[in-house]
Each structure stands twice: as structure tokens, then as C-alpha cells.
Q: What sequence folds into this?
């Protein structure tokens, strides 16, 4: 299986991708916990059907020490006991912020209140930006049908300044 278009070999797409990756570094260096960043990225990728990003964030989370049990339960987080209240708030925010067209109101006031309860302004800013970024990445990869399975943690490190 091959992608229908190689974003890494096209000059315009590669320039955009480099800036995109550099933007992600702002979030990576934020006070939002790394585990939360990966759980959010993984859940949005699952919702959007992005195999490439699901593969990447599962492997990155595992490489950062996330447990197989938690990774396997992200899609069923509401019924799982392995996530903190803060993580549950972030996952609810992820689902509502990703499924904008389905919900007709975006993020609910209840979910917003839960997120505000658990995250300070800098963490919340990072969470909002992360959700926007992963949804954009999902869309690019789904559009070109980037296949999943070949990602190795750290393989894009040289892509970032």
C-alpha cells in the first residue's frame, strides 16, 4: 500500500511539513503532560480514521513509557478505570473538539468546565493548539491515504529545526 501523494517529496508540502513540525515543538515543550498529549493525539486520530497518526502516536506513547493497557483502552476511555480525571476531561474535550460537525455546538460547557478544573491557562492553550494541530495532521494524512505501520519513534526528529 502506498500513499496516493508523497507529502515529503513535494517541495511545497515539505516546506509546510517542516513548519508544521516546528509548531508541534511549542506544544511538546509546554507544561501539558506528555502522556496527555499522546492520549489526545491518539484519540483524535482514531476518530478521524487516520491510520498513520494512530500508528505514530501509539508508538510514541509506548516509547515514552505509556502502558499497553492504557493505549488499548483509549477508544473506550469512558468505560475504563485507568485514566485520571484530568485525562478523562482532556479525552472528552478531544472528542467534542474533533467531532464539531456532529455535535453542532462544539465543546460543551460541561466539558469546558472539566478541562478548566484540571488545566491551567498554559496547559489549556497547549491542549487547544494540540487538538487543532492533530486534526489538521489527520486530514492531510487521510486525504493522501498515508498507510500505517512503518513509523518508528524519532524518525521525524531531523525534520524539526
A:
Amino acid at each position: 500500500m502506498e500513499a496516493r501523494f508523497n507529502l515529503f517529496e513535494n517541495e511545497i508540502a515539505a516546506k509546510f511539513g517542516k513548519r508544521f513540525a516546528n509548531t508541534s515543538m511549542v506544544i511538546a515543550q509546554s507544561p501539558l503532560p506528555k502522556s496527555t498529549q499522546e492520549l489526545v493525539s491518539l484519540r483524535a486520530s482514531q476518530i478521524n480514521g487516520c491510520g498513520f497518526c494512530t500508528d505514530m502516536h501509539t508508538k510514541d506513547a509506548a516509547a515514552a513509557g505509556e502502558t499497553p493497557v492504557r493505549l488499548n483502552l483509549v477508544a473506550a476511555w469512558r468505560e475504563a478505570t485507568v485514566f485520571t480525571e484530568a485525562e478523562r476531561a482532556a479525552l472528552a474535550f478531544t472528542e467534542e473538539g474533533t467531532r464539531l460537525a456532529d455535535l453542532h455546538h462544539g465543546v460543551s460547557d460541561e466539558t469546558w468546565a472539566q478541562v478548566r478544573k484540571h488545566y491551567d491557562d498554559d496547559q489549556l492553550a497547549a491542549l487547544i493548539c494540540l487538538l487543532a494541530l492533530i486534526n489538521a495532521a489527520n486530514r492531510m494524512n487521510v486525504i493522501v491515504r498515508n498507510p500505517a505501520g512503518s513509523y518508528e519513534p524519532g524518525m521525524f526528529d531531523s525534520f524539526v529545526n
Observations:
- The chain has one domain: 11-149.
- The chain is about 65% helix and 0% strand.
- The mean pLDDT is 94.
- The domain at 11-149 is CATH 1.20.1290.10 (AhpD-like).
